[in-house]
């Protein structure tokens, strides 16, 4: 049975205006930790597919558990909503909305959150998290804004051809720390618009390229499929890898 303390969550809804996104705005979900105090400062986790992270990943409940029982320092979560119809266009590096989304993230979203909430502004206290293409865009945001983001939580990253081509470009990645996990049953996953892919091989290729340029990569393959039933179980350990303990 779930401890009732984990279910007492404070989740706010925000809307941010944007000069870069075609629709001119984006909805956000903001999780505030137990004992939230505006006089303190908090690490922050930015989640792509924000609605899914909260509804299917149960990240707010997990956060309460980590803070209340595991001694993790309280942190804030920012879930960025996405219209599934244009998700690939925003998240994939060859998508026609990708550059605008990345710019929105670095130029508008981060300043919006840091002006409104008491989050820490050192890159080591900002974490980008995503599943599948959400993991992919998280990596590309970090690549575009290494002064903001140096840490990426990648759940079954969809590192398709264009992402691997970008990873092949010689560059110093010693600043990047990335947690990668992929399910062993993801060897023939049929994507909605790109066909069937072996996600295990995609992630192995990405790992090799990233490590080749000096990135600090935690990598694991475990029993699991390309779905939230797998990722939800892996979230606590992934967050514990990055978040400071009190």
TrEMBL record:
It comes from Paenibacillus protaetiae. Gene3D superfamilies: alpha/beta hydrolase. The lineage of its organism: Bacteria, Bacillati, Bacillota, Bacilli, Bacillales. PANTHER family: ENTEROCHELIN ESTERASE-RELATED (PTHR48098), IRON(III) ENTEROBACTIN ESTERASE (PTHR48098:SF3). This is Esterase family protein. It comes from the Bacteria. Coiled coil: none annotated.
């Amino acid at each position: 049975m779930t401890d009732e303390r984990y279910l007492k969550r404070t989740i706010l809804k925000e809307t941010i205006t944007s000069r870069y996104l075609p629709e001119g705005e984006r909805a956000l979900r903001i999780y505030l930790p137990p004992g939230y105090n505006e006089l303190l400062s908090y690490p922050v986790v930015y989640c792509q597919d924000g609605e899914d992270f909260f509804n299917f990943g149960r990240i707010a409940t997990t956060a309460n558990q980590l803070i209340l029982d595991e001694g993790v320092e309280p942190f804030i979560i920012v879930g960025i909503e996405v219209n599934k119809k244009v998700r690939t266009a925003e998240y994939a590096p060859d998508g026609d909305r990708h550059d605008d989304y990345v710019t929105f993230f670095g130029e508008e979203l981060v300043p919006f959150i840091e002006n409104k909430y008491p989050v820490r502004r050192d890159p080591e206290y900002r974490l980008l998290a995503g599943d599948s293409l959400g993991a992919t865009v998280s990596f590309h945001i970090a690549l575009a804004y290494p002064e903001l983001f140096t840490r990426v939580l990648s759940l079954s990253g969809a590192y398709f051809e264009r992402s691997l081509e970008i990873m092949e470009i010689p560059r110093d990645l010693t600043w990047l720390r990335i947690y990668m996990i992929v399910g062993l049953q993801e060897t023939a996953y049929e994507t909605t618009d790109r066909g069937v892919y072996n996600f295990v091989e995609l992630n192995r290729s990405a790992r090799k390229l990233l490590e080749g340029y000096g990135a600090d990569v935690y990598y694991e393959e475990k029993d699991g499929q390309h779905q939230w039933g797998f990722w939800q179980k892996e979230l606590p350990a992934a967050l514990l890898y990055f978040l400071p303990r009190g």
